[in-house]
Amino acid sequence: MDRLTELRTAIAENTVPGGSAYGRAAAEVILLSLETQPGADVPTVVTDAATWLVETKPSMTSMRTVAAMALAAATDPDPRASVVRQMRDFIVESEQAIARIADHAEAFIKPGSKVLYHSFSGSLLHLLGRAAETTPDLTLMLTESRPYRESRRIASALAHTDASFVAYSDASMSLAAADADLVIVGCDALFVDGSFANKIGSLPLALACRHAGTPYYVATEVSKLYPGDPDDVAMEQRPSSEMAADWDLWASGRVEVRNQFFERVPADLVTAYLTDRGVLRPQEVGARTH
């Protein structure tokens, strides 16, 4: 399988690790689409690739950011060179942005802290990784994040550190929130009204934090900010089989299974965003569009 096919398959099958990585994968898809079609009309190639990316992963605003950058660059006098430069710069900047987000670890995660997280993101992994390497007596608490159970991936990646780990079922996240000193989640889409979208389960976790009085932080790159109406960004529905493949009653057609993969969390449930451009309160997010 060539690299372009590999990337497109991973994007379509939802196996790219996190929203930031989806943005970098999108940039690489556009680069490879141009590379494999050296004589083709650049605006056409970019439009086709950008349309496919956004339609395939509608909830990932990093895809929309990359698509918009590429489409704008494709109108330049030397469109091929401009698009290639923009996509390469985006990949480098995204990797640097994740490293800057990890710099928040020391300020927010103190020795002896119990930190609860949900699902997986590259920003979250780097932030918690920094904390696990530098913070004594750290406990990382994780929900399952069904149906994929992505939270386990961070625990596996950090198992070599001295951090302790405690896992909770998604159904018991209110107990976990009450026991945690703070909660940090990733972000797949950031909106100008201060809300965000992330893996399903992020909203009930935020509500549990409000009930328990536990701070609820979101680790994200500002490049995920969508400047338009949040309602423009559809919340992706995944195949029912991911939840019910081994359930005969579903297979018979008797039961409808709804497998929504992302959901929005309103701004008033977010304590702050830990970003590559500093700590932002929800009401400050919209200013980043200017």
From TrEMBL:
Coiled coil: none
Domain of life according to the entry: Bacteria
Pfam family, one: IF-2B
Molecular-function GO terms, alphabetical: S-methyl-5-thioribose-1-phosphate isomerase activity; translation initiation factor activity
Keywords associated with the record: Initiation factor, Protein biosynthesis
Membrane-traversing stretches: none
GO BP terms in the entry: L-methionine salvage from methylthioadenosine
PANTHER family with a match to the protein in the record: METHYLTHIORIBOSE-1-PHOSPHATE ISOMERASE, TRANSLATION INITIATION FACTOR EIF-2B SUBUNIT FAMILY PROTEIN (AFU_ORTHOLOGUE AFUA_2G14290)
Family to which the UniProt record says this protein belongs: Belongs to the eIF-2B alpha/beta/delta subunits family.
Protein name: Translation initiation factor 2B subunit (eIF-2B alpha/beta/delta family)
